[in-house]
Amino acid sequence: MKRIPVLEVFGPTVQGEGMVIGRKTMFVRTAGCDYSCSWCDSAFTWDGSAKGDIRMLTAYEVMEQLMQIGGNTFDHVTISGGNPALLPQLGTLIEELHERDISVALETQGSRWQDWFWLIDDLTLSPKPPSSGMKTDWAVLDDIVAKLEKRAVSFCLKTVVFDDEDLEYATYVHLRYPKVPFYVQAGNGQLQETEPQRMLPYLVERYEWLIDRVMPNPELNRVHVLPQLHTWVWGNKKGV
Ligand code: SF4
């Protein structure tokens, strides 16, 4: 059985982003990403700085870790990265979790398809806006969205927004896939700040900025406007 490169297992905590924001969940963070976003808040998953912390685990061993840390205090697991969609072997873990009546959420930028996307309970596709420095492959994203819609998977699109150009991109994403629930989220440009209390005024200001931009825009009448909730409580702290 192919092993999974795991960097972190933690929780339970609250999901700070996307369609299940606020949901009590455990996290499994996988290593590796095919992008290198300029503002990535988990660059340690792909920049080599945490290479020594990667553990190659079987799906069963990940399950064991989750149980050891979370005990009976969770029924939901979020698989995060990096880009977990690089890992075809994740299907086994998702099946193991479902066998125990545990729901699974996953976030990916939508650059790769995996057949196990069909099994995910809460799937977030998060294409990256211009400020990331990355380019969206629209043909790949079109294909992923079409495959998910065909099988009525519960999924959403989410775009992080730092500036007006990003919001223009987000609007384009929403208009390209108008039937898919859409979330815009205020970006965090203070990744070096270690003191959560010092960050909060900045995060509130960025959230207000985004609200002010979205409210008068008739093309964004059906969107959800979110902060990155966990940063309001824990700032940039890892593993919470
Ligand atoms: Fe970081 Fe996500 Fe961008 Fe990968 S896709 S570089 S994990 S923000």
Describe this structure in words.
- This protein is an alpha/beta fold.
- The protein has six helices and nine strands.
- It has helices spanning 59-70, 90-99, 138-150, 164-176, 196-214, 229-234, and strands spanning 4-14, 24-30, 55-57, 76-80, 103-108, 122-125, 155-161, 182-186, 223-226.
- A nine-stranded mixed β-sheet has the order 3-1-2-4-5-6-7-8-9.
- Helix 5 links the parallel strand 8 (182-186) and strand 9 (223-226).
- The chain is globular and about 50 Å long.
- Bound molecules: iron/sulfur cluster.
- Iron/sulfur cluster binds at residues 33, 35-37, 40, 42, 45, 81-83, 109, 128.
- Residues 33, 35-37, 40, 42, 45, 81-83, 109, 128 line the site of iron/sulfur cluster.
Give a brief rundown of this model.
With 240 residues, the chain is an alpha/beta fold. Helix content is 30%, strand content 22%.
Per-chain topology:
Elements: E1 4-14, E2 24-30, E3 55-57, H1 59-70, E4 76-80, H2 90-99, E5 103-108, E6 122-125, H3 138-150, E7 155-161, H4 164-176, E8 182-186, H5 196-214, E9 223-226, H6 229-234
Parallel strand pairs: 2-4, 4-5, 5-6, 6-7, 7-8, 8-9
Antiparallel strand pairs: 1-2, 1-3
Bound molecules: iron/sulfur cluster.
Iron/sulfur cluster is lined by residues 33, 35-37, 40, 42, 45, 81-83, 109, 128.
